[in-house]
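Continuing the series of single-chain predictions for the mutant panel. This is the parent chain; the variants come on the following pages.
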Amino acid sequence: MNVQLDSALLDRKTVAAKLREQGFRRSPPDFYCVVAEENAALAGILVYYFVAFTYRAKPNLIIKELYVAEPHRSAGVGNLLMKAAAQQAERIGCGTMKWWVAKWNDRGIQFYERLGAKIDPDWHEFQMSEEALRKLAVS
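Parent structure:
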């Protein structure tokens, strides 16, 4: 049991170190984040990055994570974080903002729709596992 706990702690430390490097020590960073706090406690966080998009000749702002701590939900924190992302997208000259939400996340879907977002009916998301991409790479 201690070995598993130590391993999990090591994994979190390794991930935290990688995130510090990728988001805060590289120029430009691999990702950006907006943090909402109340009385020095985390209320929410939004992590995003930019991707060039040739069709519109404008970048896309891609939201990777939006998290609002339970005590702060339905209090406007998510709205403020999304507004901050939209302001960054406008400042950079983005053509769109994109993100993914689990099909079962009805509350999240309703929140995004209230902001004016629409589910894209024209595109399917594909993904390839690490194992599959390694197999393809050596094929």
